[in-house]
Amino acid sequence: MHLPMSDLIDGLTVAGKRRHDQSWGDWRQADSFDAAVSVLTEDYLSGTDENVQADRVDMVAATFGLDLIDAGLLWSIAAPDLDASVALAYGALRDSGGTSAATVALALELAAIPTNSREAFARLGPDSPLSAHGLIEVIEGDTWLTSTLRTPNIVTATLAGAEPKDQLVSRLQCTLSPLSLPGGIQVQRALQQGEPLIWIHAPSGSAGDSMAAGAVEATGQGWLAIDARRCTAAATSTSANRIVRGVLGEAMARAARVAGLRGRALIVIGGEHLAEAAVDGDLDAFAVLAAAAIPVVIVGATAWTSSWMTRRPLTVTAEPLTAAERIELWGREVGPMVERDHALRQNLAGLRLSPEDVAETARYARLLAASQARELDAATVREAAREIGGSRSARGGRVRTDPVGGEGPTYDDLLLPERAIAPIRQLVTWARHRNEVTAHGPLRHRGRGLTALFAGSPGTGKTLAAHVVAEQLSMELFQVDLVGIVDKYIGETEKNLERVFRAAESLDVVLFFDEADALFGSRSEVSDAHDRYANQEVAYLLQRMEQFDGVTILATNLRGNLDRAFSRRMSFIVHFPDPDPETRRRLWHHHLAQITLDADDPVRVANLGDELALTGGDIRNIVLAATYDATAAGEPVGMRHIVAATTSEFQKLSRVLPEDALRRLYARRDDEN
Description:
Elements: H1 4-22, H2 30-45, H3 49-64, H4 68-82, H5 84-93, E1 102-103, H6 104-110, H7 118-124, H8 129-132, E2 137-139, E3 148-150, H9 153-160, H10 167-172, H11 184-192, E4 197-201, H12 208-218, E5 223-227, H13 247-262, E6 265-269, H14 271-279, H15 284-290, E7 296-300, E8 314-317, H16 323-334, H17 337-340, H18 342-349, H19 355-371, H20 378-389, E9 399-400, H21 418-438, E10 450-456, H22 462-472, E11 476-480, H23 492-505, E12 509-513, H24 529-547, E13 551-556, H25 564-568, E14 572-576, H26 581-592, H27 605-611, H28 616-633, H29 639-652, H30 659-666
Parallel strand pairs: 4-7, 4-8, 5-6, 6-7, 10-13, 10-14, 11-12, 12-13
Antiparallel strand pairs: 1-3, 2-3, 9-11
Helix pairs in contact: 1-2, 1-4, 2-5, 3-4, 4-5, 4-9, 11-12, 13-15, 16-19, 19-20, 23-24, 26-27, 26-28, 28-29
């Protein structure tokens, strides 16, 4: 067995004799040195503590590929931080008095390595195993030989028998739910054969994270999992002998070191974040992970690109979870209610949450139920799923539109003809079963997303319908701000769109483009560079929509503004008609039912529905304005408030309300209300 402290004491003894001989017996630090070595000899050579230390050093050496000399150097550098007698002996050898850390010259002397040799630089230089894996730090002195050597606190703690911890890595650490899934056996075999780096392509809806954990678990090895998407702080490298990396490179290096010190594999999720950095020319993270001493499995939403590394790692694609697998996961986390409630089961089967998100949803649902002093029920599970699915990404730039108050909108809130509601219901049903459908036959390798076009005049209910779709699917609505998308500069709109789709892909949301005709208009004849690039952006958009693994809704005021290429790619085209008199009466009743009315000045709904050609949005605005005016006057809403608000709304819309229409609004009718 390699006994590091015995070897270090032997080296100290030789170094001390050399100092005695060189000073002709007049070495001022002799007594201090001899006393320190005497204590070390008594403490270690006569006991069993050294065997425990030897095991720790051997574990680190085996993990990071260190030979006996490197292991001895590592111990000699760490020892003064672990034992004050070593620090006193080093101070005496350096003739400085007191305690001291090792220098390059002293460490080489104790290891019997000439300072001017090639081996000296191979052992302690910046490319040495000790430096490359972050096991030692070199604090520059006047010369290389006088530079001070230290082990980072995390390495020192490991050699002392403590659990190695790194604050940055702890912030990135995440919990995974290991599953045995198709493709996992391939990863397992590669790991067992010593493959150092594996890339798992995990499209949205798959369980690549769980597959990676399951594969590592099957090898009998533990793992450390980190989320690269959480890595947003600035680089904090303090090692003078290492190239200062970007934030990702530094984080990956420290994570690989922690995993190695714990004897575990490293699983990096959010690999697409590394890919984005690589596209911008920052390849540090991939270089660090490729050189790691422990097996590394990266899980990313994008396919591997050969430009990231010269040597292509094994790449495995994670297949989407089947509906049965999703239901099994939900049943395991939530309990028997999933099996009992058919509607809930269908709802949950269509969600693209990862196994980790399913577990977090179950935890959050129980928290919600407990905080409201009620039993866990289907409504609470749906609410938790919507919250977790809509907040997984740390990225900003999206506009969430949540329902106001308690329950979200339902089909009953859509005051539309059945011919318009039917395809909306069908869209929701398709969305719940798309994983099953796209897993078979000719659709298997096509885009798995669904796209709907909602066309109609402003205020006819398109946005409300998008909310209903999201609510029925227990998902959040990701509403795109077109002002921030369309850009006058050539090529910028395309980049903005890519950011939108990437952000949406990291969430479990319904993607909603409002007033889409402003962005997706008919492609024009090419007359200049701007037309040519605009058409290229449209072509890109069509392709990106097909690739998007989710539900996309486009709302337009004028369907004619969208060309046939778009129409062919729509799974559903829903026309929202201007409301007829009967529908307008239903809309008036719907909005007025929520407020207090003046019995002495009744609102004549029948007249309003027949005489005023308004949309649902217009009617809502009028009722809201009338409510404000009545509240300010301290009275209930009457017909007078409605007429005044109607006049203002017509003026806002640049329309004129005829005088005879005003008279007919007040006319008494047998069928009113």
